Amino acid sequence: MSTRKTIAVIPGDGIGKEVIPQAVKVIEATGVPVDLTYFDWGADRYLKDGTTVPPDGFEILARDFDAILVGAFGDPRVPSNIHAKEILLGMRFKMDLYANVRPVRLLDASLCPLKGMEPKDIDFVVIRENTEGPYVDRGSITDKGTEDEVAIQEDVNTYKGVLRIIRYAFEYCAHNKKADGTPRARVLMCDKSNAMTYAGGLWQRVFKELSGEYPQIKSEHMYVDALCAQMVRDPRQFDVIVTNNMFGDIITDLAAGLQGGLGMAASGNIHPGRTSMFEPVHGSAPPLAGKNIANPMGAILTAAMMLRHLGFSREARRIEAEVLDAIRQKRTTQDIGGAMGTSELGDWIAKSKFIAHVGDPDFHDGAIIRVTSEADQLLVEIEGFSGAQFSVRFDGVKSVFSHKPEDMTIDALVEMEAPPPSRRFVFTNSYEPEDEGGDAYLDITAENLSVKKV
To answer: Which of 1, 148, 312, 382 could crosslink 143 through cysteines, CB 3.0-4.6 Å?
Structure first.
């Protein structure tokens, strides 16, 4: 995809101002054709001139940009947090970003606090309604300051809002595969309809109504308390979860703990066909700000999620591969057991420029037909687009990470940086994830390679 896209970048407050530059650094390292424009919305601007959002701020974002990358909002210098409310909630409500999409994917077993869990076991998505519920800030207080004080917080659920978020969940399930290429097949609706009978009754009716339109997808239901218990007992059972604004806010933080904590969690605030906003979910974390210890991986994975949404799936996959490589090599921040600083980790993930190895163009449009190994050698046999045969030999092989490499179509053979004398080579896939072969990969660390046309 070559069409340039425009991205608004709003680092915000606290660690947002540290992790978003690392995400931008990684985006730029891929060479993806995007134009970035920075906005200074946040506590600093509010304290300077009282501005939270300029009068036409949301109109500018919706009109002039394809996506928005946001850091975090919240600063102890603004006790009311009015700027955070007007910027973040304002963006969600006024731009009608009704679907909050939170992928929960375990990249490496070392990150999960549950025993025996592997990456294949935790790969689900929470779809949270993003513009209704208690967050509309409706309610009342009577007899304030007396023993008879009553506080009422309204939980607003509309048929239109519930219908579109549940439909979004079924459509997401139908059109998005898991990381290993297997199709998604189940949508679970989470509520508390046994206690919240009015709101829960609406969700139950709409879920039953829509599930009949998707007979190929299994529809399931759990009360939110039962779901929380099951999430820590056995998260393997989950696929796509859809729920309301408040429950979604709570269970996604619990789910983030399964993938390594909030520092690893990405999210998107989506309205299909409109400018959407993407943000890591860890918040501004004032105690960590300015210390160069915040984990930028959540922001970097959010950037990958945003690029995939914009149509740059190859670049998104490359970013995710680099994050996984950093985890495997223990190049991480303190929160997940490493010793790197925020900016140093960003530099390390962005270090690879994804330079395609020079070779016959026919080779790059081919497919892997066979992979064999002997001692410290690996032989990859390739059939080019025109039928020409190539033999790629790797000598001094140190490690191989692969998934269904045979029959994999090749976009390029890419050389990444690696500590000498080792060299790292990655066969990148020219298919999108939803296409046949799009989930295959072959990643080799070796001392040398040779390419021979046979």
So the answer is: 148
Say what angle helices 197-211 and 159-175 make with each other, to 10 degrees.
40
d(CA 391, CA 400): 17
Could you say which of 348, 368, 389 is where a domain stops?
A: 348
Is 239 within the bounds of a domain? yes
- 119 and 234 share a domain? yes
Q: Is 419 a residue whose pLDDT tops 80?
A: no
pLDDT in tens, 84-95: 999 999 999 999
Those residues with Cβ within 8 angstroms of residue 298's Cβ, 6 or more apart along the chain or in another chain: 19, 262, 263, 264, 265, 266, 280, 281, 282
Q: Both 344 and 369 in a single domain?
A: no
Query: Looking at 328, 348, 368, which one is the last position of a domain?
Result: 348
Residues 327, 434: Cα–Cα separation, whole Å? 26
Residue 183 lies in a domain: no
Q: Which pLDDT band, with edges at 50, 70 and 90, does 256 fall under?
A: very high
- Per-residue pLDDT reduced to its tens digit, 293-335: 999 999 999 999 999 999 998 789 889 988 988 998 899 999 9
Q: Annotated catalytic sites, by residue?
A: 135, 192, 225, 249, 253
Q: Are 263 and 298 in contact (CB under 8 A)?
A: yes
Domain extent at residue 235: 5-134+219-348
Pair 114, 240 in one domain: yes
Task: Convert the pLDDT of each residue in 194-240 to its tens digit.
Answer: 999 999 999 999 999 999 999 999 999 999 999 999 999 999 999 99
What is the domain count for the chain? 2
Q: Residue 282 has which token pair? A: 């860890």
In a domain, 206, yes or no: no
